[in-house]
Amino acid sequence: RRKETDEGGVVEKFGVPPASIPDLLALIGDDADGIPGIPRWGAKSSAAMLARYGSLDKIPDDETAWEVPVRGAATLAAQLRDNREAAVLYRTLATLRRDVPLAESIKDLEWKGADRAALTTLCTMIGDNGFVERMQHWR
């Protein structure tokens, strides 16, 4: 969609700042990335807790220590206690890595179009020659 969102837009949409998005996805899950989330944790309760505590590591195990009223607190606390190790793994999976050195620049990674010969060969192999005709950008 080529839409840029600032920190305020992220908070408005998700209820948490950008730094808490991996924690949010760890709790609620993310189908697109295959992250199941923690049972019973929905977007509202997760956002409310993360808005207060900042990260899932700081959410107390005991719901009586929670400073945020959420529906089903006892069940949510039990699920988090039972699945905290999984939640930490899910957060790692949802975190964009920025510490990996790349030999290529952003410009090098820009798509420059399809290789006509390679695409034609592939489409012939799979029996879809019409796809080549629909391609609009060649290098």
Describe it.
This protein is mainly alpha-helical and 139 residues long. Helices cover 49% and strands 0% of the residues. The longest helix has 21 residues. The radius of gyration is 22 Å and the shape is elongated.
Number of strands: 0
Please identify the structural class as seen in this structure.
mainly alpha
Rounded to the nearest angstrom, the radius of gyration is 22 Å
| N-to-C order of helices and strands | HHHHHHH
- Tally of helical runs: 7
Main attributes of the structure:
single chain; 139 residues; 7 helices; 0% strand; mainly alpha
Layout of strands and helices, then pairs:
Blueprint: H1 7-14, H2 21-28, H3 43-53, H4 73-93, H5 106-109, H6 116-126, H7 130-134
Helix pairs in contact: 2-3, 2-4
Question: How would you summarize this macromolecular structure in one to three sentences?
Answer:
The chain is mainly alpha-helical.
